[in-house]
Design a protein that fits this description.
Elements: H1 49-56, H2 58-63, H3 67-73, H4 85-104, E1 112-113, H5 115-128, H6 136-141, E2 144-146, E3 159-161, H7 169-185, H8 188-199, H9 223-246, H10 248-251, H11 254-265, E4 280-284, H12 285-288, E5 289-293, H13 304-313, H14 342-347, H15 352-364, H16 368-378, H17 393-428, H18 439-443, E6 446-448, E7 452-453, E8 456-457, E9 462-464, H19 466-487
Parallel strand pairs: 1-4
Antiparallel strand pairs: 2-3, 4-5, 6-9, 7-8
Helix pairs in contact: 1-4, 4-5, 7-9, 8-9, 9-17, 11-17, 13-15, 16-17, 17-19
The structure holds protoporphyrin IX containing FE (HEM).
Protoporphyrin IX containing FE (HEM) is lined by residues 174, 177-178, 181, 245, 248, 257, 299-301, 303, 306, 327, 329-331, 413, 416, 419-420, 423-424, 473, 477, 480.
Amino acid sequence: MSSCENITSAHKEEKAGTLPLSLEEYAITSNGFLPEQIPLKRLPQLYYDPWEDLVETLPTAIADHTLRPQVDRLPILSTDYLATEEQWRRAYVVLGFLTHGYIWGGNTAAEILPPSITLPLLSVSHHLGIPPVATYASLNLWNFTSTSPGHDPSDLDALQAQHTFTGTTDESWFYMVSVAIESQGAPLIPLMLDALQALFPSPQPHPQPHSESPPVPNPPPSPITTATTALNTMTTTIHNLGTLLDRMDEHCDPQVFYHRIRPFLAGSKNMAAAGLPRGVFYDEGPDSGGRWRQLRGGSNGQSSLIQFLDVVLGVEHLHAGEGVQVVRSYSGGRGGGTAMNFHQEVRGYMPEPHRRFLEDVEARWPGGMRTAVGRVLMGVDGDGKGQGGRLGDEERALGEAFRTATRALAKFRNKHLQIVTRYIVIPSRQPNGSRGINLATASSRLEAASSAVGGNRMADGGAELTGTGGTALLPFLKQSRDETFRAGGFHVQ
Ligand code: HEM
């Protein structure tokens, strides 16, 4: 197989019309936030063989504790020979795996990242506009291959991760469920942009043929019908994404996830309990010095697709201090300071074009469907205070389609909550005797921010062990779900 195979997905040829935004400018492909082609499996320049050879044997090197000395002996390679965006992404994937393998692949966490990793990683992350750490992009979006004819990334059974820390099927499957979700959700991007565009500029009533005019043979659908149809497709697609989520159990065992995979996803932010009180020192060599950095680790919460669905529907996630708990990620790290909530903060961990895309969509269609549908139904921006007369069938169908779509996304979040319970909360309460110092347990401590939750003020930085940690994590995820339900709260007359 060549290193740059074309991907044929079921929806690839579907969209040919003119979009209100040029998706290419945002590095969005016919596979959505996934690349158009199977990501490179190896950098073609022999110069980068020291990285490639090491990452190829990563699970073994971690298991026999030889990774750190091998990384320490790596030459400091320049990024000057990276020639294409695919190659920059490949370098980011390789360095991300080596970084987390190095930090977490021992009995204690490594506090200092050597210049052989730090220098090229900082250069690559600067080029891609993404933090120098493993992210959803390096673990999922740019880390897959497929054995299906046409390399269809929506075919979960044919997907495989290119790299894992553990060499387990469980880890590959954990990443690939997200890849299939991204792929199956991809057609929603152009579809929903069209729908927003149709509805936003004051929707016209259905064109009524004038009595003297000749009948129009195939009148184009009205903006309201266009949006209704798109929302109904969105509902079906989100339902299918939930079916994929349900398949996590097929090959990813909760014990393996919690005790073996998850520790490697951890970041360096608020990880004192796991042995990183100051984060990780990125050593840039004797000339430049270096500095301590505290960063989140890789998380599916960094998915641009799920945030796109929020933006389209107009789901609002509250800021810290407005009742939201700022949680430590399952991959480590706690939500940002007072000004940012989780969803805003993790945008900083998305590839720059994807982050820009979400911001531009928000700016162009503020409030998304919630605003647009609200205007149609009540003549207001969805706050339910309008006068509104009797609604026609078309408007009622639109309102119903919108509420059904928000309900579908809330149900998706509900399934996700059940997964988090099975994969984190329950295993965190069970003993694990496999390691001297259990980094999984240490890195799963949750810290509640000094935010008021249900009237109970929790001490800033007050840590809870994982046994009770789920009590901090679950309210955050429940809040996300409930905010989604709330976005659909219209009363159709
Ligand atoms: C074993 C599987 C999974 C586990 C244990 C898990 C766990 C978690 C945890 C603990 C969080 C809290 C924030 C964080 O730590 O970053 C989170 C957030 C999130 N996860 Fe997952 N997750 C899993 C699979 C997935 C999948 C497949 C997706 C789909 C792309 C997903 C999407 C999200 C999203 C969007 C958030 C942000 C909260 C929200 O918007 O509701 N997760 N996940």
